[in-house]
Specification:
By secondary structure, this protein is α/β, with parallel strands linked by helices. It is 39% helix and 22% strand.
Length: 238
């Protein structure tokens, strides 16, 4: 095992057990991200070890969640370079992941990554969430929707919740100072029929920061008008 993979394995061991093929795939994926990033600005992180912690470890931490094993059809909203969706797809070949990315160049990168890694359990969707969420094959169809570093909580809720099944989950990856955002999302929670059901706080390895996972439970069907047309959720949050 080379030094880069040894470091990656050591960092990720507390999160999940990965076989050599999965470690190799994660290594190749992260190399691809950092290589393509030089010309396409996929991530602000350019250091390998920092990327292992802030991207891979942070993406996979949800596997500690008690209900994780029950989530089999997962949508990653605003997938960007593929975090958390692609690392989770590599670590969980038995689950199906849909990577939703409106930006054409980033969606093309996701397609390249899934092809290069020969992932059979991922689907790349190049569309606006505001449009796709009103289409029958996607509305109320997912056990879990994830979003990492995409938008403020009230905005995310309007974009994500329509994709969730009733009794399904929306997971927001957030930094330390999320409480003000949550306080400002009370109207969105009420309108969309969602509760903040669970919170999980954790420290990244190597003292690289504090993070939180916010688990929102969908209690009833989303009113048909949501999400509103493209751009409106961001301009006029609920």
């Amino acid at each position: 095992m080379n030094k880069t993979r040894q470091f990656m394995n050591k960092v990720l061991q507390p999160v999940t057990t990965l076989d050599q093929d999965q470690l190799h795939q994660l290594e190749e994926y992260l190399k691809l991200v950092l290589e393509v990033n030089q010309g396409k600005n996929l991530t602000a992180i350019t250091d390998w070890e920092e990327a292992v912690v802030k991207h891979l470890y942070d993406s996979l931490i949800v596997m500690h969640w008690a209900q994780w094993s029950q989530q089999t059809r997962i949508l990653d909203l605003g997938s960007g370079a593929g975090f958390p969706g692609l690392p989770l797809a590599i670590a969980n070949p038995q689950k199906t992941f849909y990577l939703l990315e409106a930006n054409k160049k980033k969606a093309n990168f996701l397609l390249q990554a899934t092809e290069d890694l020969q992932l059979k359990n991922t689907v790349v969707l190049n569309e606006r969430a505001e449009i796709l969420a009103h289409q029958a094959p996607h509305r109320s169809r997912y056990h879990l929707v994830t979003a990492r570093a995409v938008a403020a909580t009230a905005v995310l809720l309007e974009l994500a919740v329509p994709f969730c099944q009733t009794e399904g989950w929306f997971l927001a990856y957030k930094g330390r100072n999320y409480q003000e955002e949550v306080n400002g999302a009370s109207k969105a929670l009420e309108i969309l029929g969602v509760d903040l059901s669970q919170e999980f706080h954790y420290e990244l390895p190597h003292a690289l920061g504090s993070r939180a996972l916010l688990f929102f439970r969908k209690n009833r069907e989303t009113p048909v008008r949501y999400p509103r047309r493209p751009g409106i959720p961001g301009k006029r949050p609920l």
